[in-house]
Amino acid sequence: MVMRLLKSAVREAKTVRILLRAKKWRDPVTNESTELLADDLEAAVDSYRDNLAFIFEGRTTSYGELDEQANRFAHWALGEGLKAGDTVALFMENRPDYVAAWYGFSKVGVVTALVNANVTGEALVHSLKTVGPKLIITGTRQDRAMRSLEMVQIRQPVWTLGGEVGSPLAVELAAQSSERPDRSHRAHLTNADIGLYSYTSGTTGLPKAAKMSIARVRNMMRSFISPLEMGEKDRVYITLPLYHGTGGLCAVGIALYTGASILLREKFSASRFWNDCADFGVTTIVYIGELCRYLLNQPAHAKERKHKVRKGFGNGLRSEIWGEFKSRFKIPTMIEFYGSTEGNVKLMNFDGETGACGRIPPYAAKYFDHIAFVKVDPETERPLRAEDGHCIRAGRGETGEALGRIGDDMETRFEGYHDKRASEAKILRNVFEEGDAWFRTGDLMHLGDHGYIYFVDRLGDTYRWKGENVSTNEVADALAGVPGVETANVYGVPIPGADGKAGMASITTTGYLDYKDVLDKLSSRLPKYAVPVFIREQQEASTTTTFKYRKSDLVKDGFDPERAGENVWYFDPETGTYELVTPETYKKIASGGVKF
After folding, report:
1. Overall pTM > 0.70
2. Alpha carbon distance 419, 335 (integer Å)
3. The domain 360-458 is classified under which CATH number: 3.40.630.10, 1.20.1260.10, 3.40.50.720, 2.30.38.10?
């Protein structure tokens, strides 16, 4: 009893200490402030000019060199006639120039749209048209996607750093001044102005451009400095895409704000992960749940415990592998968090409670009164309301959808999307009193003891797979373009041994389907992670009396062909083709024997 109380006291003291330090980082960021993101990073450069900012593919970039490259981007933008408030689309793979580009554009008030580097076809067109960029910048991996736009009128100039489609940008940048542009170009801006656009999948079926104020970007980049106790001797390993807030802003921020270094890779590799950590002196990792599971599925590695990694942060680390991951790889501190780019609900598990994505300590509840959890009808996915018409709060031990009260201050502001209709669709009104407005996260949370909060599942028309949010409508639209597919109902199903939910489509057909053609068509329109893992052939589509697709029964059937009573196909990672799910195959998949 005494030991339990002592441990609890130590835990609470640590939590309070972290919260107080975090407050010091967050307090200077207000909507009215004229201290901007570019000012923050220039101050960091002035403090750590000779420190290594990036290690990438055998090359190093100091803070001073990063700043000089950013200055070249800024001067080039001015030379192209861009001014504060204009938008540039950045469609590029991971590389130091990615950060240098948006940092440089921020110096002159130009807004950067961080386009998902995997999108192609209609999704890419939509992403570009939504924000109306003045020009588009690509890297070395986007030629195929850009060629998919050949039949579309893209009027904006395309510049490329190493690709074949577009005008070469490297020569133009080399001719620019490396001196900082005059601050007058951004002097009229405040933190309430838009700093970046970041894309997110939603119920509309295509990527939505979330507005990110300068204040929001600054806060994201500062959020994990205190919990991780970052300093200039740290080295952060980033294998997540830089167009994502977690890797591209949160992880970049904890390094660049503190003088630390970033070991950057273009993409994650399980086989070289521990070599990198050991050989480059990594102290801090950033993860998504699937990354952790990939590492656990690997054979024992000679360096998996011979490294300096002592801390990590991210989201999606499930409770069933949490302890095993920390123990096997000898990483004492894992900071799990919950949040979305556009939302106003932010949670963090400061003290490492297994499985929790956040915590609202009872003694600090008044500081989190802008976050609420309400009961939801599992069929309609709408919040349940009491006789007075107001929503019913979920209590301890219950599951509810997380909501964030919408207001004008830093904690409660909902900046929305570029599309106003999409923004309005995320707002729930008259929740607890007449006239109030709350942001719907679309995520279900379980409220545990001592204020711990556990992620349960997503509502609506998205599911999470391979660390990405996948829109069911976008996948259904792609299937509708396949000859022979009559209707397509898309949803996510769990697979033993995998995080998130695998994509599954129940389709009706007008005749014989060539599944090689199906795969080719889907791969040309969708990112790899969005191509359905399973396809079920139905004789008749499952719909309600109002002709809306039913999903709950299909999800229950899953990919079991005997339960479905129909053919189910799966994407075989070994053959790279769709194959029929046989009873034997089903047993193998259901036992975790197939690694998707």
Report:
1. yes
2. 33
3. 2.30.38.10
